[in-house]
Write a structure and sequence with these properties.
Blueprint lengths: L1 H8 L9 H12 L1 H14 L10 E3 H8 L3 H13 L4 E3 L16 E3 L2 H5 L3 H11 L1 H6 L3 H7 L4 H5 L4 H7 L1 H25 L7 E5 L5 H9 L5 E6 L1 H5 L11 E5 L9 E7 L7 H14 E13 L12 H12 L6 H8 L4 E12 L2 E10 L4
Parallel strand pairs: 4-5, 4-7, 5-6, 7-8
Antiparallel strand pairs: 1-3, 2-3, 8-10, 9-10
Length: about 375
């Protein structure tokens, strides 16, 4: 009835487009959060591991193995097949009393469900679809009105970083997710970025330390590789297996001090902060950077002139940064404006890869006196 009223009231002036198709498009957009949450449920429940890789299973058996409610699980599985995660296939129920209303209730893997068998991908889904990051978006209207992000009202903490500090499980999922992103970006970074001219490299906000380990493996000339992150991150590292004597974990805050080095890497870090915070971070680095030192900012490069672009994911990452941490995806021009308030200058901007629907860039900063 509601849909019929909408159809009757909708007119598109000077358009040959069927209004019903436009209405459907609007409802598809509104339905987006539901699709996100069913995928989150699949990841959180780890449904993929209970389905044979090349086989199939009836929902009654699946529910029994997972120790969940069969009816609710079936409806979840049905919704997941609607977005291409799992497939409902022909088969018979092992329980003749089960009525699936002309449905087999038998499920197998799809290409998408096989992907989320990977624990690293599951962690990313659990992070992005979990309550903390989803709830942060609840303040979007007030953020647009005031220009200020009020996370206290949406997630119960002053900042997302405060949440991670107080929620150990969230912290672990976040750190593992960041390692996943690093590994996906790692190949192009290691291939296109020159690390051979530096004695000491600090990966600021390096998390579990994967990137600095890989850099050391490929560059024997480097004397020291420092994985620098908050004390809470360093203490909870699960993958501290590096046997390279040049590798070291150092705990601290880049708002206070950083180890002395001639290269500082900020990969997927500075987009988490607003301009005044980035100025503060660069000022901290300026006190410790060696003569002729560099900063490599490795991050998403927003593409300008994307009017009406519907395929770029960069705009969504930018919005997410805005709602999670008052951050922003920035290009070389943005950093030139920021650097005016520091003693750094943008030396060069490189596009090193295009992956996941956006460009990954390397923005190189040098101290003004070094240029």
């Amino acid at each position: 009835m509601e849909m019929e009223m909408i159809r009757m009231q909708t007119t598109i002036p000077n358009s040959n487009i069927n209004p019903e198709n436009l209405i459907q498009s609007i409802f598809d957009i509104v339905n987006g959060y539901r699709k996100c949450k069913v995928l989150y449920a699949a990841a959180e429940l780890n449904i993929s591991k209970f389905i044979p890789p090349n086989g199939k299973i009836h929902v009654s058996q699946l529910a029994n193995q997972m120790n969940v409610n069969q009816d609710k699980l079936y409806r979840l599985m049905r919704s997941l097949t609607n977005v291409g995660v799992f497939k409902e296939v022909d088969g018979e129920s092992p329980d003749t009393n089960v009525d699936m209303v002309e449905s087999s209730g038998v499920f197998s893997h799809s290409q998408l469900s096989m992907i989320i068998k990977d624990d690293s991908i599951r962690d990313v889904i659990r992070m992005l679809g979990g309550s903390s990051q989803m709830n942060a978006w609840n303040s979007i209207v007030d953020t647009v009105k005031t220009g200020k992000l009020d996370l206290q009202s949406s997630i119960g903490y002053q900042s997302y970083w405060d949440l991670l500090e107080n929620e150990p499980t969230e912290r672990e999922i976040f750190d593992r997710s960041m390692t996943t992103f690093t590994k996906k970006m790692g190949g192009p970074i290691l291939s296109h970025c020159d690390f051979s001219h530096f004695d000491t490299i600090v990966d600021c906000g390096g998390g579990e330390g994967w990137l600095i380990e890989e850099i050391l493996k490929k560059n024997n000339i480097i004397k020291n590789g420092i994985n620098f992150d908050l004390d809470a991150v360093i203490k909870t590292k699960k993958t501290n297996t590096c046997q390279d004597s040049r590798f070291k974990d150092v705990a601290g805050s880049f708002f206070e001090s950083v180890p002395e080095a001639d290269l500082y890497i900020f990969k997927n870090v500075l987009h988490n902060w607003n301009e005044s915070s980035i100025v503060e971070i660069l000022q901290t680095v300026s006190k410790s950077i060696k003569p002729n030192g560099k900063i490599y900012i490795l991050d998403i490069l927003p593409e300008r002139n994307l009017k009406n672009e519907k395929t770029s994911l960069a705009v969504w990452h930018d919005m997410h940064m805005m709602m999670i941490c008052d951050g922003k995806e920035r290009d070389g021009c943005d950093y030139e404006k920021i650097c005016i308030q520091t003693d750094f200058k943008v030396e060069k901007v490189n596009t090193i890869s295009k992956t996941f629907g956006f460009s990954i860039g390397q923005i190189i900063l040098s101290k003004v006196s070094n240029l």
